[in-house]
Specification:
Elements lengths: L3 H14 L1 H37 L6 E4 L1 E3 L10 E3 L3 H7 L5 E10 L4 E2 L4 E2 L3 E4 L3 H4 L4 E4 L4 H5 L4 E4 L1 H7 L9 E4 L2 E9 L13 E4 H8 L13 E6 L6 H14 L11 E4 H44 L1 H9 L4 H38 L13 H28 L2 H6 L2
Parallel strand pairs: 7-12, 9-11
Antiparallel strand pairs: 1-13, 1-14, 2-3, 4-7, 4-13, 5-6, 5-10, 8-11, 9-12, 10-11
Length: 416
């Protein structure tokens, strides 16, 4: 009775007897698997990069900015500007559709000076909950607190780049800077955010009440407590439809216009943006996956062709083995293991090589291209590629081998 080791020995001798054909077959399989994995990994890299980029703004975030009210829907003549205010944000906090509301009062025309250097950064008047709504990773010290806001204290939190410019090579905590000649004490420092070409890292944060008191927005018909932005999160995570509608009704009521005038609102909805990006990259995944599957199918066709030719060539050998007493089961086992080894080993090689290539890209490019992550190995695509190729190879070997094994030994020996 033929043992498993005997069967494997016959398999290896058959593979080594046709070295070039076996090599080309394995190369085609490895190339097909590797191509599919890299293409799917590329799509996932784009998706994760965009998701990460949006998450640096904040999660479930809707930003509302000052805008203009059209006299008629879809018309841009006779537009009346309006400014969001602290009073608006207080009214929004009472809406049950919102779980968090924060504000921004930004000025880019103020001048910051330390005893070592100076700069002109974006000065942001914010509330203590700004770090809960927005992505603000704190470094040394603390962020603004309720006491700072209530008492309108002259304290400041520096962005990473702003701290480096104002205090080059020196600690900033406890030091003083002046903003347009008014002294502020540094109570904290934000870690590097690295978004928008260091725009966010050059910001400095002060209590919004202090900002309104000292550096309110100037201009005709601008309320004293005018803001540049109100930002909020919906009560229902991942769904801002009800929250946006409630905010539109409230702001329209407070500023005397029809909430159905969509042009009267200037907003950026990260939830909607993320869903749109997700749909785009799902389509990209399908496209790239389709290209990879076509490449994989070509590899499978090559395997089937090679195995069919191999079995046809070896029909006389099958007849001889049957004449010497080999069973149909032992003949089928040999071709099963031959197809399995050829496809399985070369598929694993393709996975390892493509995984190594993507690892090298991650080491070289991670963090170098905003909004894009290097491709990464996606387990389901590896399992799909390897499984489909193994099935192709085994089926391609077993079908003709079963037909040859059914032949009469004399008839099989006569086949050329």
């Amino acid at each position: 009775m033929q043992t498993f080791s005997d069967t494997l020995g016959q398999v290896f001798r058959a593979i080594l007897a046709n070295k070039l054909r076996s090599f080309l077959t394995m190369f085609g399989i490895a190339w097909g698997v590797g191509s599919l994995l890299v293409l799917v990994g590329l799509g996932e890299g784009f998706r994760s990069g965009q998701h990460r980029q949006l998450s640096t703004l904040g999660n479930d975030l809707v930003m509302m900015f000052n805008a203009t009210i059209p006299a008629l829907a879809n018309q841009h003549t006779g537009m009346r500007p309006y400014k969001l205010t602290l009073a608006d944000s207080e009214a929004m906090r009472k809406l049950p559709e919102l779980r968090a509301v924060t504000v921004e009062l930004r000025r880019s025309d103020l001048y910051e000076v330390s005893q070592w250097s100076n700069t002109s950064a974006n000065v942001m008047g914010v509330l203590p909950n700004y770090t809960e709504v927005r992505f603000i990773p704190m470094g040394p010290g603390r962020f603004l607190d309720d006491s700072d806001t209530v008492d309108a204290r002259r304290v400041v939190v520096l962005g990473d780049k702003a701290a480096a410019l104002l205090f080059p090579g020196r600690p900033s905590l406890g030091e003083r800077i002046t903003i347009n000649g008014i002294a502020f004490t540094v109570v904290g420092q934000v870690q590097r955010i690295g978004r928008n070409n260091d725009f966010d890292d050059r910001k400095v944060y002060v209590p919004v009440t202090t900002m309104v008191q000292l550096f309110a927005l100037k201009g005709e018909n601008i309320p004293h407590d005018a803001l540049t932005s109100i930002q909020y999160q919906p009560t229902t995570k991942g769904n801002a439809v009800a929250a946006v509608a409630a905010v539109h009704r409230l702001i329209a009521q407070r500023h005397n216009f029809d909430p159905s005038l969509v042009d009267a609102f200037d907003e950026f909805d990260t939830i909607k943006e993320e869903k749109m990006i997700g749909a785009i990259f799902s389509a990209m995944d399908i496209f790239l996956g389709g290209v990879g599957v076509v490449t994989l199918a070509l590899g499978a066709v090559g395997i089937i062709n090679i195995m069919l030719v191999s079995v046809t060539e070896r029909t006389p050998e099958i007849g001889l083995r049957k004449a010497l007493g080999a069973t149909k089961r032992s003949i089928l086992a040999q071709f099963f293991w031959e197809g399995l080894l050829l496809t399985g080993v070369s598929g694993i090689i393709g996975i390892v090589v493509s995984g190594g290539f993507m690892w090298l890209l991650q080491q070289a490019l991670t963090g170098k291209m905003p909004g894009w992550d290097p491709p990464r190995l996606v387990p389901w695509s590896a399992a799909l590629a390897l499984g489909s190729l193994v099935l192709s190879g085994v089926a391609a070997g077993l079908y003709p081998a079963s037909k040859a094994a059914k032949l009469d030994p004399v008839e099989a020996l006569r086949r050329e």
